[in-house]
Amino acid sequence: MLDKKIVNNLDYVLLFGVFLLTGIGIMLIGSATHANVDSPNRYYYVFRQALFAFVNICIGYYLLHFDYRMLKDLAKPMYVLNIIMLLAVMFFGRTVLGAQRWIQLGPFSIQPSEFAKAIMIIALAAYVDKRVNTLDNLRGWIPVFAYVFVPFILVMKQPDLGTSLVFLAILLGIMIICGFKKKYFLAMGFGVLAAAPLLWGVLHEYQRNRIRVFLDPGLEPYGSGYHVIQSMIAIGSGLLTGKGLFAGTQSQLNFLPENHTDFIFAVAGEEFGFIGVTIILLLYLLIIYRGFSIAMNATDNFGCLLATGIVAMFTFHVLVNVGMTSGIMPVTGVPLPFMSYGVSSLTTNMLMITLLLNIDLHPQRLRFH
């Protein structure tokens, strides 16, 4: 039964952007996969994505009946559960394409690192909220950095550089909203540059190749550079208006790898053209803007921190995914929110939108002091 109070106060502008992007994603997944799958299951990915989108919408509406501030008391157990899940991947995880990131549960394959993003937003927001009065100097931030460092390292071990960088983006967003001083940012920036040679040594060889290919895509045109080259060809061939849905040759003829997951934006560029991808990017901008507005009008510091972490996560995902498919950023395997195929990713994103809506249902403003 519908709750009129909830229905009347939902942010329908935010929902419009989310539902439209999800619908576009389902269409593009169908276009990207229908020609490459045996006929009895040619729309397997479409039905699966649509089914879980519907299930997540139902779950999300149910969760709106609970006050998001309940999560503050659950943050510590969730953080511990997160560490346990990431450790379980190390010992029992399934390896796909050289990365050990999935756990098989019967017919379902889940990716704990995707759920780890949501858990880290909640756990970090609660942790910072308790320490907000001690964050006026760099020393006060050291426990916060350590709090993020543990799951960061566990995800790096999978290896999953993209998701581990999402953790840093979430932390960065929360640092900015808490008034982290510019001089500290500059000092940390110089520190990272100084440590660059050491960081290069930590990376796996395929990760180094991705950076080399980013600097020169023609370095390995049939190896590490193949994804990027085919993606840029697909986007460029869409021109102004695109070739039309189900008419993208790079995708239909299977030249474009991972076309229904990480490189779904390239399919959009080929089939919808410049005008189509501009509309898609404007929809993402709408979601980010509404999320930032919710953060600024949150009931309390915890709600503000939650919304900021969510906005930081979405912003990072969009910038990195669009950047890597366009050839202006290294390939990191970061999916495009609501559009890339993936049950774990879609569920995480839908739950974060639900959390934004929940925060928005409590409109009283309270700034940091």
From TrEMBL:
Q: Which InterPro entries match?
A: FtsW/RodA (IPR001182), RodA/MrdB (IPR011923)
Task: Point out the signal peptide segment.
Answer: none
Say yes or no: keyword Transmembrane present: yes
Q: Which residues cross the membrane?
A: 12-33, 45-66, 78-97, 140-156, 162-180, 185-203, 263-289, 301-320, 340-359
Report membrane topology. Answer: Multi-pass membrane protein
Q: What is its main location?
A: membrane
For this record, the Gene Ontology CC terms, alphabetical, are: cell division site; plasma membrane
Q: Where in the cell is it found?
A: Membrane
Which is one GO molecular function term here? glycosyltransferase activity
Q: Does the keyword Acetylation apply?
A: no
Q: What is its EC number?
A: 2.4.1.129
**What are the UniProt keywords, alphabetically?**
Cell shape, Glycosyltransferase, Membrane, Transferase, Transmembrane, Transmembrane helix
Family matches, as Pfam families? FTSW_RODA_SPOVE (PF01098)
Task: Give the GO biological process terms.
Answer: cell division; regulation of cell shape
Looking up PANTHER family in the UniProt record yields:
CELL CYCLE PROTEIN (PTHR30474), PEPTIDOGLYCAN GLYCOSYLTRANSFERASE MRDB (PTHR30474:SF1)
Mind telling me what this protein is named? Peptidoglycan glycosyltransferase MrdB
Lineage runs: unclassified sequences, metagenomes, ecological metagenomes
